[in-house]
Amino acid sequence: MFIIKEIYKPTSIEDAYNMLISQKNNTILGGTLFLRMGNKRINKGIDLSSLNLDYVKEYDEYIEIGAMTTLRELEINDLILKNFKSISESVKDIIGVQFRNIATIGASVFSKYGFSDVIVSLLSYDTYVKLFDGGIIKLEEFLKRKYKKDLLTQIYIKKDNTKSKYISMRNENSDYPILNVSVSKQGEQIKICIGARPKRAMIAKSASEFLSCNPKTIENIIKASQIASKELEFGSNIRASREYRIEVAKVLVKRAILEVEKC
Ligand SMILES: Cc1cc2nc3c(=O)[nH]c(=O)nc-3n(C[C@H](O)[C@H](O)[C@H](O)COP(=O)(O)OP(=O)(O)OC[C@H]3O[C@@H](n4cnc5c(N)ncnc54)[C@H](O)[C@@H]3O)c2cc1C
């Protein structure tokens, strides 16, 4: 169990960031579900709950999500369901409703968990993260960056009519996924994203390009799923072997493409 010496309630985002970097063991608190699984000794636990970061707002060109918005809110929010339904679908299998009522999107994205269902789904859209120090960057770039202490405050998703489909495979309900896939389509452009490999989600660029430039016939869809299973690195852990993940990837990518083609 983790230990927090003191809870700090910042009065602004700047105050929260300054407290975060002022001492090594100062830590941002989201819903603390992941933190409590470890045994970290936290000096100041920085509680963001009074900074009004719990919201989903619509603008002409994008949707803005505050870092303290819960996964449950993303699952049931009308703006998300209307514009980015696969995000809602991607969180449904994470443990249970009570859990999702506490887990926050800021922590889920900032932590870059390899198994993350919501990251693979966000990646299939044109998504950006806002970091207090790092500024606004594309999610894809953020996922590639080395860890640096920062505070994620907002997530932006462009409303560009992208259709996306999310699928995952789990050994048991509520277990971590052994593989998760999101495929999106904007016009003729296809984006294939695969996570829980077990490394963090990545875009299968060659497979996406191949299918974007060729007719979406069943032969080409199968070929794209094979390219994706070869171009990305897969590994083994207690949930599944590398070889199994490669075979599952081919099936899930093919299914997700067929589903997104129907949208
Ligand atoms: C038992 C268990 C099973 C899970 N299963 C799944 C699953 O199947 N699929 C899935 O996708 N996810 C799963 N998760 C992850 C879960 O969905 C959340 O992503 C995770 O719990 C983090 O959310 P939290 O709000 O509780 O974060 P916390 O535990 O509060 O924080 C996690 C980390 O993020 C940092 N942090 C928090 N907020 C911010 C911020 N705004 N900016 C910068 N850093 C921040 C904290 O300092 C900490 O280091 C699981 C988690 C647990 C504990």
TrEMBL record:
Matches recorded under Gene3D superfamilies: 3.30.465.10, CO dehydrogenase flavoprotein, C-terminal domain (3.30.390.50)
Keyword annotations of the record: FAD, Flavoprotein, Oxidoreductase
SUPFAM superfamilies in UniProt: CO dehydrogenase flavoprotein C-terminal domain-like, FAD-binding/transporter-associated domain-like
A GO MF term: FAD binding
Keyword Oxidoreductase in annotation: yes
FAD-binding PCMH-type domain location: 1-162
InterPro entries for this protein: CO_DH_flav_C, CO_DH_flav_C_dom_sf, Diverse_Substr_Oxidored, FAD-bd_PCMH, FAD-bd_PCMH-like_sf, FAD-bd_PCMH_sub2, Mopterin_DH_FAD-bd
UniProt name for this protein: Intein N-terminal splicing region
Organism per entry: Romboutsia lituseburensis DSM 797
